[in-house]
Design a protein that fits this description.
By secondary structure, the protein is an all-alpha fold. Helix content is 79%, strand content 1%. The protein is built from 20 helices and two strands. Strands 1-2 form a two-stranded antiparallel sheet. It starts with a helix and ends with a helix.
Length: 338
């Protein structure tokens, strides 16, 4: 007979299954760039979570909505989270939710003014001897101050000071602090400092996609070998078709056209599962991305017949793909001239 556990596993809804997963899994998905998967987990978790866990779930949902540009929905969730943090007596995080919602509704400058007022009212000496709960809350407040200062077109130096405070206080997501520090140092034209900060972010969280993409951008010209290794690591975290395509282009630039074409052929044969804007990506779009890359590489090699064939296949995959159509037309024009 089928075991009770197996029977239960089959009848359990996805909502029940997700609700049982630890909240940390949601953050792991978020770090890897699977925003919709993370969002689903936090929402289902929130539906059955006890109050002390409900606030972090709503807080995470609100922040994910901001990253996905759903600002009105984000503001609403920040307000819900603020109420829940109040109930579990976390006034500092309730204030963080309040200013985050204020930023959604009224802009960064207003929110930043209110946040600065709150931080300045806190005695720094008292903060140094505070318990871990208060320290991690203030780490997040300083992180928010840094991010808002950047968004309010404030001083990068001031933003740098704030994020360094956040990192010094420390919290369980300190890797996002190092990533923001990297972006700020890059804006201050300190490329070495930025690179070091991105590496620190990865040291704290090797599954964090964003720093890989920045390091690839920074090192691509100067260190192609290191960049290829970074590509492999990024693809292992989240095999987005755009990242795989860019790796193929780098291989081609390095004179390894055959390796580039082989990589693309392997991916066309079995497209990776990635998450795109509209949910899990349709395989057709990924395959079209790889075919267009293949067409471009063949055209550069002067193999025009193969380039035409790849571009035609891309148009067949996604008939609405304007880029593929233009590409096909351009390559055919070159063929006609010869």
């Amino acid at each position: 007979p089928m075991s009770m556990k197996a029977a239960r596993a089959r009848t359990e809804s996805m909502a029940q299954r997700l609700a049982k997963k630890p909240i940390s899994e949601g953050f792991e998905l978020w770090d890897k760039g699977f925003y919709l998967g993370a969002m689903r987990l936090f929402i289902f978790k929130a539906e059955s979570a006890p109050p002390y866990q409900l606030a972090p779930c709503l807080d995470a949902v609100a922040n994910l909505l901001v990253e996905m540009d759903e600002i009105e929905d984000a503001a609403e969730n920040f307000e819900f989270a603020r109420g829940k943090y109040d109930i579990v007596q976390q006034p500092d995080l309730a204030m963080l939710m309040e200013v985050s919602g204020l930023e959604c509704n009224s802009g960064s400058k207003l929110a930043l003014a209110k946040l600065n007022e709150y931080i300045q009212a806190k005695d720094q000496k008292e903060l140094e001897s505070a318990d871990a709960k208060v320290k991690t809350a203030f780490a997040r407040l300083f992180y928010a101050k840094a991010a808002m200062t950047v968004r309010a077109d404030g001083s990068f130096e001031e933003a740098k000071g704030a994020v360094e405070n956040a990192i010094a206080l420390g919290w369980e997501r300190v890797h996002i602090g190092y990533f923001l520090l990297g972006k700020i140092k890059a804006a201050l034209k300190d490329d070495e400092g930025a690179t070091a900060a991105y590496k620190q972010a990865l040291h704290h969280c090797p599954q964090y996609l964003a720093p890989y993409l920045e390091l690839i951008r920074v090192l691509r010209e100067s260190d192609p070998a290191a960049t290829l290794k970074l590509f492999d690591e990024a693809i292992a975290v989240h095999p987005r078709s755009a990242i795989i395509r860019d790796k193929a282009f780098l291989l081609s630039e390095q004179g390894s056209d055959q390796d580039a074409v082989k990589l693309l052929d392997d991916m066309i044969a079995s497209p990776p599962v990635e998450e795109s804007e509209g949910g899990l990506s349709c395989k057709e779009a990924s395959v079209a991305t790889f075919l267009k890359a293949k067409a471009a590489i063949y055209a550069d090699m002067g193999k025009l017949a193969e380039a035409v064939e790849a571009a035609e296949m891309a148009v067949q995959q996604v008939p609405t793909d304007e880029e593929a159509k233009v590409m096909l037309k351009d390559i055919k024009a070159v063929v006609a001239e010869e």
